[in-house]
Amino acid sequence: MKPYKNAVIFAGGKSSRMGKDKALLPFGDYKSLSHFQFDKLQKLFTHVYLSAKNDKFDFEAPVIKDKYSEDSPLVGLLSIFESLNVEEVFILSVDAPFVNASVITKLMAEQKEPYDAIVAKSPSGLQPLCGLYRKSILPLLRKQYEKGNHKLSTLLSLAHTLTMDFKDDAPFTNLNHPKEYEEACLKLADKK
Questions:
Q1: Which residues contact 58 (CB under 8 A, 6 or more apart)?
Q2: What is the pLDDT of residues 48-92, one digit of tens each?
Q3: DSSP 8-state assignment for residue 25
Q4: Burial of 135 (0-12, 13-18, 19+ CB in 10 A)
Q5: Which domains, from first to last, does the chain contain?
Q6: Is 73 helix (H, G, I), strand (E, B) or coil?
Q7: Tens of pLDDT along 96-136?
Q8: How far is C-alpha 54 from the chain's CA centre?
Q9: How many CA atoms lie within 13 A of 101 on its CB side?
């Protein structure tokens, strides 16, 4: 049995800095970064979903389509809690391939108090797309959406949030530019 229930990979970003859809870039032995992340999370979670504007993926996976026209993680989060009948969900950005099982386990283990969100914080700052979100955050999500404030950092500052400190930025490396993607591919090849 898998230790955790629900995870969603955020794979709907514009990828403007990358120049092409990073969710669909090949990674390691996988045809896409999305598939790499999906397989990794399937080892830990019973249900793994992809969050995007549309089903653009070349492998079988449940997709939660955004219910709103704007492009933002807040819209993705709102769509998830309006689509799934779940109490909590682990969120991971598609472009953070080095978030590993030990990072996820540390975040998922902190469930003593009913926080709205439990997110990672590394030396470079808050990592809002690596954390556990609970349905209790939904009223705040709706309020922030209505205000037109899509910043997850603002949402988390208003919610009952626990930040978990990590001493290293490496697991949270985001692949935003072609050079970062190339370096990540080399790093992955070195690990084999």
A1: 24, 31, 32, 35
A2: 999 999 999 989 999 999 998 888 999 999 999 999 999 999 999
A3: S
A4: middle
A5: 4-191 (3.90.550.10)
A6: helix
A7: 999 999 999 999 987 667 899 999 999 999 999 999 999 99
A8: 17
A9: 10
